[in-house]
Amino acid sequence: MPNANEIGKGQAIKFNGDICMVLETQHRTPGNLRAFVQATLRSMRTGKSFVQRFNSNESLEIVPMSRKKYEFSYKDNSGYHFIDPTTYEDITFQEDFVTKVKDYLTENLACEVIFTDEKAADIEPPAVVTLKVTESAEGVKGDSANNVQKVAVVETGLQIQVPLFIKEGELVRISTTDGKYLGRA
Q1: Is the pTM for the entire model greater than 0.85?
Q2: How far apart are CA 111 and CA 69, in angstroms?
Q3: Terminal-residue alpha carbon distance, the chain
Q4: 139 close to 164: Cβ distance less than 8 angstroms
Q5: Is there a shared CATH topology between the 65-124 domain and the 128-184 domain?
Q6: Per-residue DSSP letter, 103
Q7: Res. 140 pLDDT band, cuts 50 70 90
């Protein structure tokens, strides 16, 4: 098994009975103390991120992972349906699995599904999605000092802050990492 010095960003490790994705690693050697690796990990089960320190010679179990492209097809009572665009294989996920990405899912949106041990572990949407504004209050004329923003609702039900000039029916670009408005599409 590799030691903590050999883990890197994008790998999956087994930690405390859970599979965790390595988001960032830093090798540290403070003064007269022993070297350690400080890693930012995200639990595949809960989706929460945390920082963990490992001794630099501590053995870690790396979990093999693979990525596969799927397109979101539709949602019904049985869950969220994704389809492989090459083999047309259908895969269904429950709502708790897609919770962090469901506000960005529109028909035919290409996502990457990460598999560990032949089981789906996580879904990554594209970094930026284009969504249609369905509800937006009218901006008040003259109320444009200092980048004033208003709340808008997009087609998936997500509420975002947009500039006053955005109207209903417009397409906007949204970052999937923080859910912020990036501009018109």
Answers
A1: no
A2: 6
A3: 48
A4: yes
A5: yes
A6: G
A7: low
Domain formed by 128-184, architecture:
Beta Barrel (2.40)
Which candidate, 150, 98, 106, places its Cα nearest to that of 128? Answer: 106
What CATH architecture is 4-63?
Answer: Roll (2.30)
Q: Which CATH superfamily is domain 65-124 in?
A: Nucleic acid-binding proteins (2.40.50.140)
15-29, 100-114, 143-157: segment of lowest average pLDDT:
143-157
In tens, the pLDDT along 153-164 reads 999 999 999 988
Q: How far apart are CA 36 and CA 56, in angstroms?
A: 5
Instruction: Enumerate the domain spans of the chain.
Output: 4-63, 65-124, 128-184
- Whether 63 and 116 have beta carbons less than 8 Å apart is answered as yes
Q: Using one digit for the tens of pLDDT, what is the confidence trace for 39-92?
A: 999 887 777 889 999 988 888 888 888 889 999 999 999 899 999 999 999 999
CA distances from 124 to 94, 109, 121, 148, 151 (A): 15, 11, 10, 31, 26
Does position 101 have pLDDT exceeding 80, yes or no? yes
